[in-house]
Design goal:
about 270 residues, mainly alpha, 9 helices, 2 strands, about 60% helix, TTC36
Length: about 270
């Protein structure tokens, strides 16, 4: 009778689980500057307060959209308010280009305005598991430009805060922003992979970006890796998503099920 050895199971689990294998523990040090690129505590407080004001405005807009907060006839439409918040984030980033948290929040705001399907031209305008974009009349040229900003913001935010070695400590605030940026990019890639798998779908990405050459499986793989890193820096949801989004995990799951099916099928046969 065919049987999975412990070695077989171990190998399959290591392939299936992107977190398998040793890794350096995450070192958090609350005494470090909250942002390594803004070491002056007074300046950091000023910048973070400006950002919090913008984020609070975005939260108010979302309450209006959800019908949880009344609006007056004089209130601008949610899209106009959102675009104004993005403009304020633009100004903040222009003044403090190494402030990673603002880049993470701008990317999120732009995804909310233009949708998570921005990287793909597909027959469907949006799927059931995506929030409907606030702006649905953007041209391909606009969407390509916006998608480049989103990807650049997330990549830059990650680069600005990632420790130079796995053994270097970082502040709780830096870990949280890293977790958010990795998880957000992972979700962006994951939803892009789902859209790209639709019949008639094509990538809509600026020439010169590495993602321009990716197929569905590459988006799935990078999404899984980003979810792993999001989990490493503290996002439990990202940690859970890492395996389910990993195409290798799906394949290995099928391999395990098939091996077990054959093993059970042979259980009644004589050796």
């Amino acid at each position: 009778m065919a049987s999975l050895t412990q070695h077989d199971i171990s190998i399959l689990e290591k392939i299936k689980d992107p977190e398998a294998g040793p890794s350096a523990p995450l070192l958090i040090d609350p005494s470090l500057p909250k942002d390594p690129n803004i070491s002056d505590a007074t300046l950091y407080q000023k910048v973070s307060n400006l950002e919090r004001t913008i984020v609070a405005s975005i939260q108010e807009i979302e309450l209006q959209i959800a019908g949880l907060k009344p609006t007056s006839s004089q209130s601008p439409p949610p899209l106009s308010q959102y675009l104004n918040c993005v403009k304020t984030l633009d100004d903040l980033i222009q003044e403090y280009p190494k402030y990673a948290s603002a880049r993470n929040n701008r990317a999120q705001a732009l995804r909310r305005i233009y949708g998570d399907g921005i990287l793909v031209k597909s027959p469907e305008t949006y799927s059931l598991d995506e929030a409907k974009p606030l702006y649905t009349n953007a041209s391909d040229e606009q969407l390509i430009q916006i998608s480049s900003i989103i990807l650049t913001d997330l990549t830059t935010a990650i680069s600005l805060l990632t420790p130079r070695t796995p053994y270097m400590p970082l502040s709780p605030q830096s870990a949280r922003t890293l977790s958010q940026a990795y998880t957000q990019r992972g979700a962006f890639y994951h939803l892009t992979a789902k859209r790209l798998s639709l019949k008639g779908a094509d990538l809509r990405i600026e020439d010169g970006r590495e993602e321009k050459q990716w197929k569905t499986v590459e988006f799935e793989e990078h999404a899984s890796r980003d979810f792993v890193m999001g989990g490493r820096y503290g996002n439990e949801i990202a940690k859970a998503l890492a395996v389910s989004a990993n195409p290798t995990a799906k394949l290995c799951g099928e391999m395990v099920r098939e091996a077990m099916r054959k093993e059970y099928a042979g259980a009644g046969q004589s050796v």
